[in-house]
Amino acid sequence: MNSQTLSTQKTIKAMLIVALTLLLLSSGLVLSNAIDKKVSASFVKNEFKVITAKEAKKNPNWEKGFYKSRATGYVTSSTKHYANAELLAVMQHEAYSGRKWGTGKVTATTAYGKNVSMIVPDGYGSKIYYGF
Amino acid sequence: MEARFIMAFKAHNLYVPSFAVLLIISATLLILAFSNFEINQVSKDIENNINKSDGDFIIYDEFDSESSSLSDFFAKQDSLKIMRETYHFLITNNDFEYYEFANQNIEYQGSLNIPKELVDHEDVDLINQTSENGSLFTPLKSFQMDKRTYERSQLESKLIKKNGQSLYDSTSFIPVIMGSGYRSIFHVGSSFSGDYLGKIATYKIIGCLDEQTSISINNESFLLDNTLITPTINEQSEDDEEYLKRLYSVKCEGFIPYETEEEYYSVLSSLTMIKEQTGFLFYIPNTNSNQKHSLFGTLLLLLSFLTYVALIVLLYKLVYQRYMINKWQLLVFQALTILIAWLLSVVISKIIGIEIISKSYTIALFIIVEIVTLLFRTEEHYYE
Predict the structure, then answer these.
(1) How far is CA B384 from CA A3, A89, B313, B324, B329, in A?
(2) Cβ distance B267 to B93 under 8 Å?
(3) What's the pLDDT score for residue B353?
(4) What was the pLDDT predicted at B24?
(5) Cα dihedral across residues A75, A81, A86, A92: positive or negative
(6) Residue range A84-97, pLDDT digits in tens
(7) C-alpha closest to that of A1 among B324, B113, B255, B39
């Protein structure tokens, strides 16, 4: 192997180290959002449905064959608390479930977003908020 | 000075590392620009797609976010005062008619054998939960509506069984109208103990709705078969502050009907005014500045894309051909560049307070890199 190839390999190794460092850094950012002690469980996900021709006809913002989505989740706590799910479309606020107050397991689900539809589902996102 | 710098650059084989850094910075910019562009496009779409000519403006607040929550607002000394004031503005405003409407569950106290359709999201875990003191409770799907909403929905005419009592007259108990799904659980005249927002009261069934009865809010239909309907609850002298905060936060959620675009914007303007006067964070859709942001996003996207393509070409011409790296090194190099750029974008976006949107853009970027590299690649350049 000549010196140039060695140099390239060194660069690739350096890049690998940078990638792993950044990976650790970003996982640290995720962990910093750890859940409150009063909350024993918290979860949120998106649910998807493919838009039918009939639905697309009713709602001009929806396209047939595209995805519609809603956000659904829950927060569990033994004290009185609320859960509020948010549906995001490309990070933009689409809908809130509205705050649901309760004790124990409190579920919150938004309506299917009416203002946009997506050709790929991963453009949608969801968040769950809680408080006491 | 310049010549010495170039000499040092050549002597230390800085071509690959320097291009790697430039490529990563450029790819990071491109991913951020993609996000910015797409965010503005969707933001504009959402705003444009709202039906402004006929509907109900659903009122809710923006206290919940990544960095704060309604609890932070509740912790403020004057939060209850602000909410009382806001509610007062909503119900006494001359510019619009406020309809108070909420869908908070009533927690039935005791053991209950019910089908899953009567609880949120048909989640069986919600039925007969155990409280801290060991007693059982079940949150039942419920709507709370003021007289104005009740009359608009014409629910009185959909009652198939009733005992003659009104939903809005009782003081000793909270009257309840049940959906048809409750017919095997309760009967007209049944009473039960229920917890609403932390206050336990007696609820009494005064009527039952016909099957398939629904109400329409903002052109969306809500089937009432599996729901209980109660009047909206008002403040009582014995209520504690924590409960009142919850109560008023719910009372400030409702809707305002509008029939023209002019009325829609008038509602927005009135809510903005109340927001400014009280400090209550109503959600007001953004109706301006999207155009400007979108143009900026497009320019940034174009600039980043051109820089990125230019760097790929330069990288190939000046580094790959000169150093004759093999195709596996090339593949690893490219994959690492994209991975680092993606991770860097995630870190930067977290720091500046936005998030990177989707994996699709990284995959698209990787494909672009592959295509561009392929365009400039010939077999004789590989060293194997």
Answers:
(1) 15, 47, 22, 9, 11
(2) no
(3) 53
(4) 73
(5) negative
(6) 999 998 778 888 99
(7) B324
Tokens of B154: 């014409």
Q: Identify the residue among A87, A93, A99, A119 best suited for mutation to test binding to B, counting B beta carbons within 10 A and taking the highest.
A: A99
Measured in angstroms, the CA of B50 and the nearest CA of chain A are apart by: 6
Residue B288 phi/psi, 5° resolution?
-140, 180
Residue with structure tokens 């619009």? B96
- Which residues of chain A make contact with B131, given a CB cutoff of 8 A? 78, 103-104
Which residue bears the tokens 């913002």? Answer: A61
Q: Kindly indicate the confidence band of residue B67, based on its pLDDT and cuts at 50, 70 and 90.
A: confident
Q: How far apart are the first and last CA of chain B?
A: 38
**In sequence order, what DSSP letters do the residues of B361-384 get, joined into one string?**
HHHHHHHHHHHHHHHT--GGG---
What are B201-236's pLDDT values in tens digits? Answer: 999 999 999 999 999 998 889 999 999 999 999 999
Residues of B in contact with A99 (CB under 8 A): 64, 70, 249-250, 253
Q: How far apart are CA B293 and CA B228, in angstroms?
A: 46
Q: What is the dihedral of CA A107, A110, A112, A118, to 10 degrees?
A: -100
Q: Is B317 exposed, middle or buried (0-12, 13-18, 19+ CB in 10 A)?
A: exposed
Among the listed residues A91, A93, A66, the one whose alpha carbon sits nearest the alpha carbon of residue B349: A91
Give CA–CA dist B27/B30, Å, rounded: 5
Among B114, B125, B132, B251, CA closest to A103? B132
Handedness of CA B88, B91, B92, B96 (dihedral sign): positive
* Residues facing residue B254 across a β-bridge: B59, B100
Instruction: Tell me what pLDDT residue B382 has.
Output: 44
Tell me the C-alpha distance between B362 and B88, whole Å.
50
Q: What are phi and psi of B137, to 5 degrees?
A: -150, 155
